Amino acid sequence: MTNDDLTYPGGGVRLYVEAALSDGFTVVLNEDQSHYLAHVMRAKVGSRLAIFNGRDGEWDATVVVVAKRGVTLTVGRRIGAQTETPDIWLALAPIKKTPLDYVVQKAAELGVRRLQPVITRRTIVERVNVERMRSNAIEAAEQSGRRTVPDVEEPVALTRLLSNWDTTRLLLFCDEGGDAKPIAAIRAPKAAILTGPEGGFDPAEREMLRAQSFVIPVTLGPRILRADTAALAALAIWQSTCGDWT
Amino acid sequence: MTNDDLTYPGGGVRLYVEAALSDGFTVVLNEDQSHYLAHVMRAKVGSRLAIFNGRDGEWDATVVVVAKRGVTLTVGRRIGAQTETPDIWLALAPIKKTPLDYVVQKAAELGVRRLQPVITRRTIVERVNVERMRSNAIEAAEQSGRRTVPDVEEPVALTRLLSNWDTTRLLLFCDEGGDAKPIAAIRAPKAAILTGPEGGFDPAEREMLRAQSFVIPVTLGPRILRADTAALAALAIWQSTCGDWT
Q: Using one digit for the tens of pLDDT, what is the confidence trace for B43-63?
């Protein structure tokens, strides 16, 4: 089977590229994308798809070369203007590989703008694979229809994260503490959600977090949630109260 | 390493059992639980843990026999009264194995009361493994601290689900349609969330759903969510507006 029109959402192909995009520009896809397009989607010269780069909006593109060295596209007309997701970050202590893959994918779908790995006392540091996080975030962005990809930052220690924090951004700390507010009660249009590793934050970390003026401890109900569940629940509720789901 | 006190949350062991629970009763664990307790947690005679059955509250229990045929417990004092989760169901078209495992686990953590597999036109029926869903739901219930486990029903066709529906329960249909309301705007203390298979509902199904008096089409924002993401986001938002996260 070949497929002439891979335009999203009809044919479903939508790719993130780094190159500048404008009418008539040429884009050479990287190895993975070329393989995907040529061998998985069976694209051929003349096949069409959608591309975006997070800066110039979304564009129609046409395959002009399918070669061993890669697939080359010519940019056609602009399908849509550049848009931005709401101003929400997820600062997360890395967890096991599969739940981490999952939380990155879901956070990208839920419109997170930045993913910040945070090293805590109970974090198993070997788990942080930033390139893998980036690749998962890009794939989910492509499939979700968003015109940006989340930034995935290099890991930072919790103490350093707090000392360098822009205090105009509220940090919603998903805590088990009794006095924490329901997250739906918070109105914070510029915010970050913070979740811990499987073993949670240690008592000294909780105390340090609660001492910061920009930290708001928030609760996610009476049951014990895994770290990845907490991150996704918090993002969904934030989108529905402060983001673009209202 | 052995562990005398496996009481949750100290040692972390908390098991769901089917037997009736009262002071002095004897409980014989099934094969899987016996293996877990004896060989993974290294329980021995005298080890303590927490048990619940969804009816009689939560109880302290002590291992009295560790044998090849299984582990036997004696029920001690009641740790806490029986509690119920809010009245929310998830009706979901089965999806691929790994995302289905994941959504069952997360839905149980998020306090869902019933999981109802729904067969739609685009559902791949071979995917419905009710026993696996039950086992995942029980494990997540044990770890989340809830004192019930979600009911996992036998699969039912969408048409039949609708014709037998208790119309006092609102069915929140996660739809991509333009006129759907934000889910956070709905107040429905007795409700069910409905999500489709990877390929979505077909046009005739969407029309049929929208024709029902008890169906409310709801939206989850401007991005395209996978079926499992939609289910979890909808559950989290419902808990924060109508459930026990308020």
A: 999 999 999 999 999 999 999
